Amino acid sequence: MHVFCGLKKHKPPTVWLIEHLFPFLPALFLCVFYKVQTHLCVLSLRTFFNMLPIQMVDLQTQYGRLKNEIDTAIQKVLQSAAFIKGPEVAAFETELQDFTGAKHVIACANGTDALQLAFMALKLQPGDEVITPSFSYAALAEVLHLLHLKPVFCEVDAKTFLLDPEQIEKHISPKTKAIAPVHLYGQICDMDAIIAIATKHQLPVVEDTAQAIGAVYTFKNGEKKQAGTMGAIGTTSFFPSKNLGCYGDGGAVFTNDDQLAKQLKMVANHGQPQKYVHEVIGINSRLDTLQAAILQVKLKYLKEFEASRNAVADAYDAVLEGIDGISAPIRNADSTHVFHQYTAVLKDAADQKPLMEYLKSQGIPSMIYYPTPLHKQQAYAQHISMPLTEDLCTRVISLPIHTEMAADQLQHITTTIKAYFKA
Ligand SMILES: Cc1ncc(COP(=O)(O)O)c(C=O)c1O
């Protein structure tokens, strides 16, 4: 009371407060600043830590979503103990026939075997040539070499990175015995042109559709067909990260030709048309029952998975459109895209490694599909020049894409890309 009266008498309270608090003002300011900063920091850390780690493909979250159905399917097989050639294998083959529209589906052990079965069933002979892209995964070239066939590498289209039909004919020789396009990243090659060339030269087409299962091609006459069902034989892989992936290895071969189907089944089963009769040299390539049971569940979701992947791709497209240094993948107007990969192209190859490093530093994985053209791999080396393919390998970058991408993950990826390009 006394002090108060004294104050009132001599100085107004605000002046008193300023005078007495003045020495503490810097400390007070620091406290407030620190509090705000800490809060912001905690907020951003919280955003970061609440966000699930970003993966190229998130199979754990997807399994969590399908757990009940998958676990039930697995239990059923375990209890039946029919691990090989159980009823789920034939059932899955039929369901995949219905899904793809292929007349025959023959399940096998993996996508590489599927390719081997295709060329064995076509009875290609050592030295025969197969036209195929060099900008691709190694499985096809590997199988051709194993069978003593020769891959004749062909350039890809500059926009879609798919086998360029305009380049095919110049590679055709008397030794050419097949054309093997790869529906890379999830969209279908120019099949109108490829089938026209194949028909003209009476060559079978083997479609590698490991990355494009479910994609649909619209022919110039309006007819629609699924990836893998347009050529003589289509092959696919059920590797876990594929759009239709199992929980181990798996693959399948498609054909609409009854004779080829018979041959494919026989080759996949030690060359046996019936037990202990070995008509031709074959291999042992089976999809096991557990994988078939898992695939039966996952096939039901394939269209939904495709839509989720397309939603991620659309979001990436929208952001990349506004950035000068990186371009969104160009879509083939005649094919739907199932976006097995979202592969963007850098304007400047010098950005490939630094961008990957920057993304990594922000918790974002990325991949190069593929860093080395097949004709430059030691195992399949050919002294040829393929400028477009060689250049693409230095400028492509694949971003995370899968069925479980959360909005905050996507936001983090796109913001980080924009930050790198200062866009
Ligand atoms: C285009 C292509 N072909 C073939 C394969 C081989 O499939 P798998 O790993 O099941 O043998 C793959 C797998 O990555 C692929 O991407």
Describe this structure in a few short sentences.
The protein has 15 helices and twelve strands. With about 425 residues, the protein is an alpha/beta fold. The protein has three domains: about 1-50, no CATH class; about 60-300, 3-Layer(aba) Sandwich (Aspartate Aminotransferase, domain 2), CATH 3.40.640.10; about 300-420, Aspartate Aminotransferase, domain 1 (Alpha-Beta Complex).
Describe this structure in words.
By secondary structure, the protein is an alpha/beta fold. The chain has 3 domains: 49 residues, no CATH class; 242 residues, Aspartate Aminotransferase, domain 2 (3-Layer(aba) Sandwich); 119 residues, Aspartate Aminotransferase, domain 1 (Alpha-Beta Complex). Helices cover 44% and strands 12% of the residues. It is built from 15 helices and 12 strands. Strands 1-9-8-5 form a 4-stranded mixed beta sheet. It has a 3-stranded parallel beta sheet with strand order 3-2-4, with helices on one face. A 3-stranded antiparallel beta sheet has the order 10-11-12. Helix 5 packs parallel to helix 11, helix 6 packs across helix 7 and helix 6 packs across helix 10. The longest helix has 26 residues. The N terminus is likely disordered. The structure holds pyridoxal-5'-phosphate. The site of pyridoxal-5'-phosphate (PLP) has 13 residues, from helix 6.
Question: What distinguishing features does this structure have?
Answer:
single chain; 423 residues; alpha/beta; Aspartate Aminotransferase, domain 2; Aspartate Aminotransferase, domain 1; 3 domains; 4-stranded mixed sheet; 3-stranded parallel sheet; 15 helices; 12 strands; 44% helix; globular; binds pyridoxal-5'-phosphate
